[in-house]
Amino acid sequence: MNRLEEIRKMAEEKAKEYNSEEMIPFPFSKITNKFSNLEIRFSKEMPDKYSGMIIFFEEKDLFAVLINENKPVNRQYLTIAHELGHYFLHQENIKREPILDYVNVLDQGKGRVLYNEGDEINNINDKLETEANNFAISLLMPEDSVRMVWKKIKDVDDCAKIFNVPVEAMSIRLSRLGLVD
């Protein structure tokens, strides 16, 4: 199993652990209530070029996820899951420096970084972003839930609305699962 497969598996396990009721969309409070060193904050002051970030405050032993409140709600939702991916996967990196997530990764259609299948990513930032994105997609759209909803609806836009994610993210997830071309 390669690293990205391990990450997707871990995210699906986290989805079951923190959302045993299989609520759609995913209830992030189930995670933030469990970890006293994690909080999610929304900001209208964040520059437009950022969708979110995660920072570690050593004096408080706190990881703070900051979300750009000016972005569409479904984009904020995906960004929260992405930042949680960093939290679960990259705490040592975050402790050294904040991880800032630019909007161009998804918003300008750069799927290579979003869902790269290769482990041969040369740039460490691309590697971290790819890992966090794969975590986010599997957390928000667990395979069994996506298959169940797709079987009933068979419409990408409607599925995206149900899971509260951008259409591009839903399209990629459906494609990955072999449900659409």
Descriptive overview:
This protein has 181 residues and is an alpha+beta fold. 54% of the residues lie in helices and 14% in strands. It has ten helices and four strands, in the order H-H-E-E-E-H-H-E-H-H-H-H-H-H. The protein has helices spanning 3-18, 29-32, 73-89, 91-96, 104-107, 111-115, 124-140, 143-153, 156-163, 167-176, and strands at residues 38-43, 50-57, 62-68, 99-102. A four-stranded mixed sheet has the order 1-3-2-4. Strand 2 (50-57) and strand 3 form a beta hairpin. The longest helix is centred in the middle third of the chain and has 17 residues, at 73-89. It is globular.
Question: What labels would you give this structure?
Answer:
alpha+beta, 54% helix, 181 residues
Helix and strand layout, with pairings?
Layout: H1 3-18, H2 29-32, E1 38-43, E2 50-57, E3 62-68, H3 73-89, H4 91-96, E4 99-102, H5 104-107, H6 111-115, H7 124-140, H8 143-153, H9 156-163, H10 167-176
β-strand number:
4
Note the overall shape: globular
Strand-residue proportion? 5-15%
What is the number of helices?
10
Distance N to C terminus: 24 Å
Helix content: 40-55%
Task: Summarize this structure briefly.
With about 180 residues, this protein is of the alpha+beta class. It has 10 helices and 4 strands; from the N terminus they run H-H-E-E-E-H-H-E-H-H-H-H-H-H.
